[in-house]
Amino acid sequence: MTDKALYVVGVGHSYGDVVLTNDFIESLDIGTTSEWIMEKIGISQRRITLPLEYIAKERNENPEKAEEICSKNWVDLAVEACNMAFSRAKISKDLTGLLLLDCVTPRNFFPPPSHELKRKLGINGLAVDIVTACPAVALHGFFVANLNQETLPEVTLSVTSSTVTHAVNYNDRTDGAIWGDGSASMVIVKKSFLKKVRFAKVLRIVDASFDADTTRANSVVIERRGHFRQDGRAVRNFSVRQTVRLIRDAQEKHGLDFSRDIFIGHQANYTMLRQIAEATNIPENNHWKNVSFCGNQAAAGALASLSENWERIRPGQKILIAVLGAGLSWGTLVLQAEEL
User: How many CA atoms lie within 13 A of 246 on its CB side?
Assistant: First the structure.
């Protein structure tokens, strides 16, 4: 009988190499101030891939131009994140048998983005696009956990990468203040593989869930070669309520204790995350986040927050990643650090 246990043995992240500050956004004279951004959104800076001179002059009014002048594209960021994940796992990327990719900002539909990343990484194995925007880390975990474990490869690479700033209209005072660019990845292995390699850190996948309400699909949209748009108030209110429900359900099901265990939410904005943490009594030191200094990086933000804190994880700790976004869709990934 096959042991269905799956483990995360390495995570990685990569951010845009341009820093977009609140003072710069204020200088665009689009009806906002640094103080307003901090009060309403709670983001002090973003890591992006568009030149500041381009934003100041053209405001990205033609999104097709963004890909031509960016410092990095989504696949550049993805390769960096994958290299970090494999470096931490201390195994070769050549062992990858399955690559799962979530990218909501591909330049082309064909070849599929997953095949483009596979080529850039120089790996073999099956490459598949499994896309749902912000909750991708939960969807990928859910997808792998529900595959036939007899035929699942021993090593799976899950990647999310997006350059949403390429679809931002910088004449909009809210959208320009929210988004950053980034990628994150995790290496998932079967229990049989643990017997072959001694890993420095191992997180068992305790549970994974995913669901969606497609009646609200038009609440968040990135138009093909167009601009991002959303019903911000409706999405925010839904996100807070739904994340609180996800946290409470996970607490009851898995006995989470946030005096010890960790919460990571969708990195939409800091004020929303603070509201969620206050509603569920999660202490600041066990609420891991990066949105204040990186911006909203779509699905990459939550996994990148785990990656940022990789060395802080202690045996026995449980980590709840509760994420949601476009679709509208949502999901959870519950991990537990194993004793080695």
Answer: 30
